[in-house]
Amino acid sequence: MVMSVLLNFMFPPPASLVVSGMTVISFMILMNAFLSEVRGKHLNYSKFWNANPSGQRQIKLSSKTGMLLLYTPAFLAALASFWIYPHEGVRSTVLKSAVTLHYFKRDFEVLFIHKYSGGMLLDSAILITLSYFQSAAMMTYAQHLTQGLPEPPINLFYPGTVLFLVGIIGNLYHHYLLSKLRGKGEKEYKIPKGGMFELVICPHYLFEIMVFWGMSLISQTLYSFTFAVGTTFYLLGRSYSTRKWYVSKFEDFPKHVKAVIPFVF
Length: 265
Known about the structure:
This protein has about 260 residues and is mainly alpha-helical. About 60% of the residues lie in helices and about 5% in strands.
């Protein structure tokens, strides 16, 4: 019943053990990350880079190095998809462009926009890097496997393109606002102001959720759908933990400012 409804919105699942297996694995990893964030066991980057000291010696990367490690393999995988799967129609081309642009933007922000404090532990960096890399590779590969299949009865390509563009612009804008919080040489955290920071503490996560749902609607494959669902849950958990952290650090934190969804959560 559920699958028959979903097939109105997406291509049939491909007869590929690789894609089917990675669909399940990536979803389970993201849901586990969501539960870990809610329980206070964080991936160690940004303000949570040293949140779960284990007592064992761990390799720490600078935030800039760690962030480049996260996004560059995924960017290269998405870029390579133009060569590996050339000339496969508008939907495929736009999806590959969206995935490539997203990870290129993240590298651009790392190099030219973000200001850093703290760091990133290597084990968290490797886990996130693998997740992003396989998502870029599998999303484009799953789209490749739709070649020759009939289009889904309900076409979500155009809403997905609009949603992706709104998400990537909103994400970039709020990362820019975050970068302006600190003056030269400053490393301490401040309560973000401006834009949707007046309503939620993690609007950049809200717009990143839009980015992945935009990709999902452009693609209309089961893999992209499950990855968007898993990413949504993870970022909800991360934003919940982020708001909790700000409340613990700043007595004047505005109570009306939610975690990621204005007026709701």
